[in-house]
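Recap for those who missed Tuesday's class. We walked through two folding examples back to back. For each one, the amino acid string is listed first and its predicted structure tokens come directly after. Nothing is annotated here on purpose, so try labeling regions yourself before you check the end of the notes.
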Amino acid sequence: MQIFDIRLSTIEDVRNFVNEVTRCDFEVDLASGRYIVDAKSIMGIFSLDLLNPIRMTIHSDNAEEFLARVEKFIEK
């Protein structure tokens, strides 16, 4: 399991992020406050507070390819 903070600032960011997550064969969760949603659910993501960073939990230890594709969303 790997945990990162991400930022999805625009509708286009959310759409691109969901497109990348749906290509994965493992689970990815997003958390904002006490809410946790499936990262493959665009409606779930829009229910989160997108003004603040979102906690992304990747349920795989072999996600280097995925991380390279979503690197632009990860908070440094």
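Example two. Treat it independently of the first, because the proteins are unrelated.
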Amino acid sequence: MELEVIRQTDSEIADLIEKELDRQKNTIELIASENFTSPAVMAACGSILTNKYAEGKPYKRFYNGCENIDKIEELAIERAKKLFNAEHANVQPHSGAQANMAVFMYAVKPGDMVMGMDLSNGGHLSHGSPVNFSGLYFNIVSYGINENGVIDYDKVRELSLKNKPKLIVCGASNYSKIIDFKKFKEIADETGALLLADIAHIAALVAAGEHPSPFPYADFVTTTTHKTLRGPRGGIIMCKEKHAAGIDKAVFPGIQGGPLEHIIAGKAVALKEALSPEFKKYAHQVVLNAKELAQALMEEGLDIVGNGTDNHLMTLDLRKTGNTGKDIANLLEKAGITANKNTVPNDPQSPFITSGVRLGSPAVTTRGFKEEDMREVGKIIAEVVKIGNSSNEEKLKELKARSLKLCQKYPFLY
């Protein structure tokens, strides 16, 4: 129905949305940062709430007519606090990167020393990359992973003692092991640093008890809502109560104007869903599926950074195969699987080419995939890697048919 409404005004956009719907229906989605919202979340995001301006906090707005908006945002806040056992929550950030930006704005000043995970080792742009605001305006010291694919906490401590950062950022965009938030807190306390835990990727796993929580330890916790949490595209900041007023001011008027209240409504719906027993089962299956996929790939003779996964993602290391991440990601798409090229530690290729492919289980788990399905996915991926640069189009068509069969086994949500 919604598509037909669009078509009446703009047939070009309607046609492209329809094509994208078809792509999502008939593709195995392994991009670790993507997921499928529920129809309820999607409906909230497309609601009349998009019409309302609501600068400021609930019950302290700069615009009139916010009585319903206030209650919606208040529900989102309370649900976030309940889900994560947080003291304070701000649900207004438009993205995870902006959530991190607001924490930086409150916690440190331009030129201060900040320590974060190196982008090429699994960190995020907003953890100190030189092309990002975090690397442009702050002095960054980066830590990484060792030859086993694990954060070297002794090295982190050594770097912290040497550089005396004002803020330490933990959490990652591509790290497949359990993060020791308690150890990070001990390191931060030893040097007097504040601690920011970015759980954008593992938020659902934290909420469901599938990964240790940072909340007893971190001063600030940021997350996106659209990855494992299965909500709309957006961000949330949670923090200790003593930082609440400063964080709220950093978000507005610090880095943003009016909040996206239709997206906040979508966040509220997603957070309610995440409080359900069914969501805990989902998060558990996400981990089971990721472990099964990693095991299947390794049994096919392929390398996984860190030799497996403890969460929802993994990185396929292609260096010994002679393929690049860019090439294999493109070939996977021809075989009906969507993934993204990604650097591996000490990658000889540029970030535009890479030697790895990142794979994740959240979206296919939402769709209904189980362990046996992930083994078949692993076999398809292994066949694609074997094809490599030979451009065997007939074999790719055969693999695409196998991918499509899996998709048809689990009808799409919409």
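Answers for example two:
The mean pLDDT is 97.
The longest strand covers residues 113-117.
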